[in-house]
Structures are given as structure tokens and as C-alpha cells.
Write a structure and sequence with these properties.
Layout (H helix, E strand, L loop, with lengths): L8 H9 L10 E4 L4 E3 L13 E4 L2 H6 L3 E2 L13 H4 L3 H10 L2 H14 L3 H12 L3 H19 L4 H7 L5 H12 L3 H7 L2 H4 L5 E6 L7 H10 L6 E4 L2 E7 L4 E8 L4 E7 L5 H12 L5 H9 L5 H6 L11 H10 L5 H15 L1 E2 L9 E2 L3 H5 L10 H16 L10 H9 L6 H12 L10 H10 L5 H7 L7 H9 L12
Parallel strand pairs: 2-4
Antiparallel strand pairs: 1-2, 1-3, 5-9, 6-7, 7-8, 8-9, 10-11
Helix pairs in contact: 4-5, 7-9, 7-10, 16-19, 16-21, 20-21
């Protein structure tokens, strides 16, 4: 699969006729005779080829006057993998739009974060996606509104403002245009058990492209969980979330064809952001067929991929939090890193109320950590200096870690900080920034796996050998780590 796939009409037609779910999110099919747009895997009888046109986004379909199919729900497709593995301005813009930046800060705020003018951002998005930032954000608001309509009992006025609409009229008009149903009709069609969901609690199904191997994904999150902020309970990973309008608590559990997501939000306006961050955490928009296909071409990695395909990169819901935890984990065991983090959480985290018990705090903000007396930190003096420099730069805004980060530039800035070596910068690039090509040649687990597999074990030689795995070296790291018996590689019992 490749950039701009919607322009390859012949290939798109083949995907639609074979109802291939691997292409969901890569492009959308608009049917001229019905005025409806679908995902490639739509179960209905495919239309004639001459009646199909293809668009790169749901927003582009909506702008062209097409309505969402009621059978295949194209608005619930996994996101395009393009925004995962690219670092250009369009990809960074799409990650920011998914994080709700346009709704909170407007197009000017989006452009400022990217370092471009509003006109430049508009032009680039239109050229590649057939829709500008406002249309893309509108499509996202429509999907958020549908989730709230179908999974909560909130009054429609509250749904409208929680989804980001500025008026009830705009909300009603958009829902009718996109779904060809009124908001009340959408709620009436929702399954009864969903409509009677617990007040204040949202139950969602997060889609992904198969295969997805949950072992290292949830195993890593559970094994490194910080007490008070994260836990593994009853087959689900639970954690607290710091969100733009308040806080939340999420529970994520692997299922054969989706991730079961249970959200409790202090403010329903945070729904879009919470979903976006959970999807990033679990790397749900990845394209495992492309990743595994490339890694399988290496005879050393092929048996590892064949044994357990679909490994994802466990990421984070808060880039600044992960950077702090990476420093706490320098040259210590997983258990020691959790202990250090738990002490900071208990002393400086924001208390939250968990109806189920177990979770007690939000991870401390950089501003709270910048006020910590370094002498109270139970770590070597040099690491204290690293810690205080990092949190001060994060708190002052001198260092920006987020979905809009330019990966090479941010990695270089991290390496310039005292106490930041290649391992720390690379693990932040891999898990916090989301760089799919981040590599850890100095990691002890990677070097041990390399020796056992007959790969070069020195960092320089291993980096040279790993060139064939680009641009998916972050996924190769997961397969190499999985050769070890460390708890991060296994679902908790």
C-alpha cells in the first residue's frame, strides 16, 4: 500500500470487489448512483466500477455530498496508517486534528504548532486529502457525536457541545448530512443494551487491522505499570488520563476483532482526545501486513514474525510523562523504575476518584515536577540533574513533546540535554514520539537477542544490519525483545 492509493482506480476496485478489510481507512468508496460512501470491506454487493469514485478521507466524501453507509459504518474505520509512519507536515497535522487541536485552538492554532501559515496548511491538506482542516475536524465531530448519541443517554444539547459543535442547529444539520438520519433516529436505532449503558460510562469498540498480537502490547504496559496511575485488572489494562478539559479513567481489553474500551470522563468534551490517545497507546492504526511483510523478508526475523505476527509498539497517552519515566528507568530494573515513579506520583500527582478503586492519581505534570526539591529524589546526583533539566524544559515549553513533534529534530534536542544518551533518546522516539523507525541498538535486551539469533551484537554493526528493516525498525525491536522471557512479552495471567 502506498501514499495516494485512492488515485489507483484499478487497485481500489479490486479491493472493493474482494471486500478486503486491510484497505479500510486507506481510501473510501463513493457510489455515484446512491450518494453513499463506504469502506472497502462493505458487505453489500459491490457497485459497477463506472459508478465508483474514490476519496482519501471521509471528510472528502462528505464535502463531495456523499452520506455514510448505514451497513459498514465507514466513519468507524481504523485511521490511515499514513499518519503513523510519516513525519511530514500533513501527517503531523492529521495527528493534531485527531487530538482535537482544531476544535480547541482553531486552524490558526494548528498552523502555529506546525510552524506554517494557515494558508499553507489548508493547501497541503486539500492537495492530499481533498479536504481542509475545518472539514476534517467536522468529520471527526460527526463521529464523536454519533458515539455519544448511541452510547449515552445525554440530552442532545449536551451531546452537541461535547462533540465540539458551536450550535444545536449545526449539530442537527451535520448529523443529517453525514448519516442521513436525525440525532433522535440514530439513538432509536442503537442497540438497547448500549443505550442503557451506565450513566457517565462509555463502552466503545476500537477497531484495528488484523492481525494484532496482544502479548507484548498489553504485557509491556502491565509489567511497567506505575501504581496509582496504571494497573492490570480482570483481563484489562486500566489507567488515568490527563485531558484538556478534565481527567478520565480508561479500561482497555483485547478481543479477537477489536479492543474493548471503557471510558469514564470528567467532561464529555474530552471523548475525541481520549479515543485518539488510546489508539496511539495501542498503535491501533498500524498496517501489520506492510510491517510484517518487510520484516519477513529477512531470514533471521521471518521465523519470529511467523510465530506471532501482528506485534504492535506499546506507546503512551502522555509524551512528557513517558520522557520523565524514561529518565527514571535509566540503568535500573523495571521494578526499580516503577518504584521511583510511584513515589513521585504519591507525592506530587493529582488525586482522582476511581469508582472501582485501584487508581488514585494522575501522573504529575511537568510544572509540578519542576517544583520538586532535587535533594528529595532517591537517585544518583547526575541523574537528578538530568531529571531536573528535563522537567524544567518541559514546564517552560522550551522542549515540546507531542504528536506534532518532528522526529529527527526532537531526537537531536533530547541528545543535547545532559545525561541523555542514545538509549534514552531512542526509547522516547520509539514509544512517546511514535517514530516507527526508531531503533535501540544499545539496549541490553536487543543485544542479547541479536547474539542468540546470530546477528551482530555491537551497536554500530547491528545498526548497519538493521538497515534492511527500515522504515519499520521499531517493530523489529518488538520481535527481538519477544525472544526473551521477560514479563513485558506476555499477557498477565
Amino acid at each position: 500500500m502506498q501514499k495516494g492509493m485512492h488515485t489507483d482506480t484499478e487497485r481500489c476496485v479490486r479491493a472493493v470487489r474482494s471486500k478486503d478489510a486491510r484497505f479500510d481507512g486507506w481510501f473510501f468508496t463513493a457510489v455515484l448512483t446512491t450518494g453513499i460512501y463506504c469502506r472497502p470491506s462493505c458487505p453489500v454487493v459491490p457497485p459497477k466500477a463506472e459508478n465508483m469514485v474514490f476519496h482519501p478521507s471521509a471528510a472528502a466524501c462528505q464535502q463531495a455530498g456523499f452520506r455514510a453507509c448505514k451497513r459498514c459504518r465507514p466513519d468507524t474505520s481504523p485511521g490511515s496508517p499514513e499518519w503513523n509512519h510519516r513525519a511530514d507536515a500533513v501527517a503531523r497535522a492529521m495527528r493534531l486534528i485527531a487530538d482535537g487541536v482544531v476544535d480547541r485552538e482553531g486552524v490558526t492554532g494548528l498552523a502555529a504548532r506546525l510552524g506554517y501559515s494557515s494558508r499553507q496548511v489548508e493547501r497541503q491538506l486539500l492537495a492530499e486529502l481533498g479536504a481542509g482542516p475545518l472539514a476534517l475536524a467536522r468529520a471527526q465531530r460527526a463521529q464523536t457525536a454519533r458515539l455519544l448519541i448511541e452510547t449515552t443517554g445525554l440530552p442532545m444539547a449536551e451531546v452537541a457541545f461535547a462533540a465540539g459543535f458551536s450550535s444545536i442547529r449545526t449539530f442537527n444539520d451535520t448529523v443529517r448530512e453525514v448519516f442521513a438520519l436525525s440525532p433522535s433516529d440514530l439513538r432509536a436505532r442503537a442497540p438497547r443494551e448500549t443505550a442503557r449503558a451506565t450513566p457517565g460510562v462509555l463502552f466503545l469498540r476500537l477497531p484495528f487491522r488484523a492481525p494484532l498480537n496482544p502479548d507484548n502490547l498489553f504485557g509491556h504496559l502491565a509489567a511497567t505499570a506505575v501504581p496509582g496511575v496504571e494497573e492490570w485488572r480482570d483481563g484489562a489494562y486500566r489507567r488515568t488520563l490527563r485531558l484538556p478539559y478534565g481527567h478520565g479513567i480508561v479500561s482497555l481489553a483485547p478481543r479477537p476483532d477489536h479492543i474493548a474500551c471503557r471510558l469514564v470522563l470528567g467532561d464529555p468534551r474530552d471523548l475525541t482526545v481520549a479515543i485518539s490517545r488510546c489508539r496511539r497507546l495501542l498503535d491501533l492504526d498500524a498496517d501489520p501486513v506492510a510491517v510484517d511483510g518487510q520484516l519477513r523478508a529477512d531470514p533471521v526475523l521471518a521465523p519470529l514474525v511467523d510465530k506471532a505476527p501482528g506485534r504492535r509498539v506499546p506507546r503512551t497517552v502522555d509524551e512528557a510523562e513517558f520522557a520523565v519515566r524514561a529518565v527514571l528507568g535509566q540503568q535500573v530494573s523495571t521494578a526499580a523504575a516503577r518504584t521511583h515513579a510511584a513515589r513521585l506520583v504519591a507525592a506530587h500527582g493529582t488525586p482522582v476518584d476511581d469508582p472501582e478503586g485501584g487508581l488514585t492519581h494522575l501522573f504529575p505534570s511537568p510544572q509540578a515536577l519542576a517544583a520538586v526539591d532535587p535533594e528529595t529524589l532517591a537517585m544518583p546526583r547526575t541523574r537528578r540533574a538530568t531529571f531536573t533539566t528535563l522537567v524544567r524544559q518541559l514546564a517552560d515549553g522550551d522542549l515540546q513533546l507531542g504528536v506534532e513533534s518532528d522526529w529527527p529534530e526532537t531526537r537531536a534536542r533530547l541528545l543535547a540535554l545532559p545525561g541523555f544518551g542514545p538509549w534514552t533518546a531512542d526509547v522516547i522516539a520509539l514509544r512517546a514520539l511514535g517514530d516507527p523507525d526508531a531503533f535501540l541498538p544499545t539496549d541490553l535486551g536487543i543485544r542479547r537477542a541479536a547474539r542468540e539469533l546470530g546477528l551482530p551484537s555491537t551497536p554500530a554493526a547491528l545498526t548497519a544490519r538493521a538497515a534492511a528493516w527500515r522504515p519499520w525498525r521499531a517493530y523489529a525491536v518488538q520481535y527481538l525483545w519477544a525472544t526473551d522471557s521477560h514479563p513485558i512479552n506476555f499477557l498477565p495471567v
